[in-house]
Design goal:
single chain, about 300 residues, alpha/beta, TIM Barrel, 5-stranded parallel β-sheet, 11 helices, globular
Amino acid sequence: MIENPIPWPNDARCAAAFTFDMDAESLLHIYQGETAPNRIALSSMLRYGPEVAIPRIVSAFERYGLRQTFFVPGWCLETYPRAVELILRGGHEIAHHGYIHENPNRLSSQEEAEYLGRAIGSIVKATGRRPRGYRAPSYAFSRYTVDLLIKEGFDYDASLLGHDIPHLIEGERGRLIELPSDVTLDDWTQYVCSKDLGNTMPIQSPERATEVFRAEFDAAWRYGGMWIAVWHPFVSGRLARYDAMIGLIEYMQKKGGVWFARLDEIADHVRSCIDCGRWKPRIDRLPFWQEPLQGVPGGRAVRVG
């Protein structure tokens, strides 16, 4: 069960969102640097996302009456304008996902602020409005992130993994709505096998991956939770995996009692429930640890197990 579940609109059993991180070749450039131009196969795999998969995914969402959220690095917005146009034309939200998929928790606060602002500029230029939501590239939310987001006027974050339902995160500057997910809902762990991207786990069949995604949905539906998929167009936009996605959408719609929504819509609902006193969320003060734990060998990795 979920302690203190949030009431969903129209007495829905759960909220669901198929969110996509359109990273494209930002991954090539941030991880491969000077060797990036010579990695043609990797480049072709990543650009499959904006060039082939995005039109396919957006068309499917239109057929099933869904409006969803796409997290897009600023550089990708500048590089793939047709994909951005299709996303916006479908009524979907474009949210912040770094500028070049940089890892914030490897940056200083000043560097993180500079990349954050640069990508905000890219989003404003592409969409005409400032972004309301943020997802840290590679889940690399830093000790500075929450206050930087609040300073820039963001309404929600979708980077963390610590709850089954929305909650609040708090920094020095105030509070922000958190819309958490889990790695079980990330298609990367199911499908990606690439030495260039540092992941060589076995590739799962779409049936096996969907079994995991569906089990998580069934539990969210049963207990009043929230199901947020963290998927990538170049991964789940491939034909067999796309077919599995369609089957999952149809399964969820047939089950009924599901509120499909953009993440900014979920954030608005959360804020409304809080403001009217209908629901009181958990509040997490960040960072969880101000200093390294004393007695732990500094600067050395500790093998678990």
